[in-house]
Amino acid sequence: MSDKLKVLFLSSEAVPFAKTGGLADVAGALPAALKRLGVDVRLVLPFYRIARDADLEIRPRLTDLEVPFGNEILMVDVLESKTKEGVLTYLIDREDMYDRLNLYGNDRGDHYDNLERFSFFSHAVFALTEAISFIPDVIHCHDWQTGLVPALLQSEGKKDSALWGTPSVFTIHNIGYQGIFAKERLPVTGLPMKGFFHLEGLEFWGKISLLKAGIVYADAVTTVSPKYAQEIQTPEYGMGMEEIIKHWRAKLYGVLNGADYRLWDPSVDPHISANYSFQKMSGKRKCKESLIQEMDLNPALKGRPLLGMISRLGTQKGFDLLLSVLDEILALDVGLVILGSGERTIAEAIKNAVRRHPQRLGFFSGYDDPLAHRIMSAADIFLIPSRYEPCGLTQIYALRYGTVPVVRATGGLDDIIHHFNPSNGKGNGFKFSPYKPKAFLDRIRYAVDVFQVKKVWRSLLANGMKADFSWERSARKYLEIYQSIVKGTH
Ligand code: ADP
User: Fold this and answer.
1) Domain 282-465 in CATH: superfamily?
2) Which residue minimizes the CA distance to atom 18 of ligand 1?
3) For 214-268, what is each residue's pLDDT tens digit?
4) Which atom of ligand 1 is nearest to the CA of 366?
5) 389 alpha carbon to ligand 1 midpoint, in Å?
């Protein structure tokens, strides 16, 4: 028998199977990093249409697995795949729940049956682990979609399951998504009212919250940066959950995300026009020229700073700040390329701005991973004016690509980016604090000024490009947390 620690990762998305945001990057990279540390880690995901259509090696593992759900027994197939790094992944295949165009909903709102979809997924995990005889030492759940699992692990209804009582870790990737549903729908989860629906349980202002279930019932709660772990204990950032987080803070850890440099490194990136590194930057100039051409921007911008932004289009991401100073930014004789998908009103506002500045502003509305890489490599300055940012990954990628981040000092942006001081050469980007358009514009102005002084700019690039934010350090921290909850010493 192996004495390897066994960890089961449950996530609603993971690279390369499905991605809408940073959670997928984390759920793709962290298991691989844990595996390198000797952990037997396996991943479970819903089998969405996007994975069905992708060119991935996926084979059948179980057919007609019976999953008790409510008063019925539903059947699923389970597929199996191995990621490039060798992480065994199980995909729960239930066509009526997951074979849809979008993972969670569309621009008119969430899928009406998300509670059913993710409750079912949680119950399927119990049936799966028994069927394949993989009983983990720790279950690591991510965000509200899997927040039910820590509660089920303690529910009488699951007492006969081999998983019952397994310690769990719950990671909050974004406290803004709380999995809130009417209390009348609690039976869908399979949890009884008694014992669970109360203030110390998953009740949240008369409703149920699966995010809260994860926080309350997991043995350890983590979030994706030390700063965000502090921030979510305050009314400004806690989104109404601050008192709950404060109450449970003894089991709260802030562990910074890392970057997967096998996917995000300009010296090997297959998506970009030319590879480059700090020692040999000529490729970056080529990337910039190609993008200026691709976006049909004024060719004269080659010699001017090119700004980039890759982001979900949501209020969290600071588009109101950007839009209110966009004309002033472009008046600095710079170009800006934006890639984003999400809220229609934000996309419309950006499109209007493109009509005013067709030569300077490029916008691609939609989700496009190769284009994200091309922008990351082509831009000189990367904008992240987020209202809040649990960790943020794009600033970490930007550092490696020599694309200097201008960020708001919040969450992981604040932990990772240090404001550049030309007099001592320290710092890796530019940072502003008040959520005010002027503060943002001032920092961009400053960045553009520093850009003109080539020698100083190069020292700034060195600080970012040579830094190492690989996953290993974070994976070690998670491993410590797993070991402490297995031993019961947390
Ligand atoms: P969040 O998880 O809040 O969306 P993160 O910065 O943690 O923000 O992660 C965002 C990830 O999604 C990054 O890998 C980024 O490159 C990618 N991304 C965001 N929007 C798009 C888009 N429209 N097209 C392609 N990739 C995108």
Assistant:
1) Glycogen Phosphorylase B; (3.40.50.2000)
2) 311
3) 999 999 999 999 999 999 999 999 999 999 999 999 999 999 999 999 999 999 9
4) 23
5) 12
Ligand 1 centroid to Cα of residue 8, in Å, is 25
Question: Which residue(s) pair with 310 in the sheet?
Answer: 339
Centroid of ligand 1 to alpha carbon of 310 (angstroms): 6
- Pick the residue whose CA is nearest to atom 22 on ligand 1: 367
Domain boundaries, the chain: 6-258+471-487, 282-465
Q: State the fold for domain 6-258+471-487.
A: Rossmann fold (3.40.50)
Asked if domains 6-258+471-487 and 282-465 share a fold, the reply is yes
Task: Pull the structure tokens for residue 82.
Answer: 């191995």
The two tokens of residue 397 are 């990628």
Per-residue HEC secondary structure of the chain comes to CCCCCEEEEECCCECCCECCCHHHHHHHHHHHHHHHCCCEEEEEEECCHHHHHCCCCEEEEEEEEEEEECCEEEEEEEEEEECCCCCEEEEEECHHHHCCCCCCEECCEECCCHHHHHHHHHHHHHHHHHHCCCCCCEEEEECHHHCHHHHHCCCHHHCCCCCCCCCEEEEECCCCCCCEEEHHHHHHHCCCCCCCCCCCCCEECCEEEHHHHHHHHCCEEEECCHHHHHHCCCHHHHCCCHHHHHHCHHHEEECCCCECCCCCCCCCCCCCCCCCCCCCCHHHHHHHHHHHHHCCCCHHHHHCCEEEEEEEECHHHCHHHHHHHHHHHHCCCCEEEEEEEECHHHHHHHHHHHHHCCCCEEEEECCCHHHHHHHHHHCCEEEECCCCCCCCCHHHHHHHCCCEEEEECCHHHHHHCCECECCCCECCEEEECCCCHHHHHHHHHHHHHHHHCHHHHHHHHHHHHCCCCEHHHHHHHHHHHHHHHHHCCC
The residues that bridge with 341 in the sheet, in sequence order, are 312
Distance from the alpha carbon of residue 352 to the mean position of ligand 1, in angstroms: 23
Dist CA 287 CA 272 (whole Å): 7
Q: For residue 441, is pLDDT > 90? A: yes
Instruction: Name residue 381's beta-bridge partners.
Output: 307, 404
With a cut of 90, say whether residue 159 has pLDDT above it: yes
Ligand 1 atom with the smallest distance to the CA of 364 is 23
Pocket test for ligand 1, best of 20, 177, 393 (most atoms within 8 A of CB): 393
Q: Which residues line ligand 1 (CB under 6 A)?
A: 21-22, 25, 310-312, 339-341, 367-369, 372, 391-394
pLDDT exceeds cutoff 50 at 4: yes
Query: What average pLDDT does the chain have?
Result: 97
